[in-house]
Amino acid sequence: HHMFFPPRHNNTFNLTAQSIISYITAHLPHLNPNSCGANGDFRVTNTHVIMKECPFCAKPTNGKVDNFYKLYIQIGGGAYFCHRCGAKGSWFDFKSEIGGFVVDGTTGMTAAPGGGGDG
Fold it and tell me: 42 exposed, middle or buried (CB, 10 Å; 0-12, 13-18, 19+)?
């Protein structure tokens, strides 16, 4: 019987668009979870949640339309890819990156202590 997969190898999270947006806005409070659509913080397609501004892009967007909506997050699996800065990874990678952000204005890239929590 080969029906059992250890959780750490299971990349099928069955993430909905709403759960992706909820996670992001919980960690990036300046984004509005209800701001979806043409000019919103998020766009939702059948397959992806698209963020207006990639949190991993080092370069400023300068308000240019063609710099927006480059970060695609896969609905269901959570894999992400930014067509602007090339950041990519799994949903686990995304969560560890986003979860490591500090939003109170202090600088310093301190890594989260410990290794394998599955928050």
Answer: buried
What is the pTM (predicted TM-score) of this model? 0.73
| Beta bridge pairs of residue 44 | 49
Rounded Cα gap, residues 115 and 118, in angstroms: 9
Supply angle C-alpha 25, 119, 27, rounded to 5. 15
Largest Cα span, the chain: 55
Nearest to 48 by CA among 94, 7, 85, 10: 94
Query: What is the token pair recorded at 97?
Result: 């990156």
Q: What is each CA distance from 106 to 84, 97, 99, in whole angstroms?
A: 26, 17, 15
pLDDT along the chain (119 residues), means of 10: 52 85 94 92 96 92 92 96 96 88 48 51
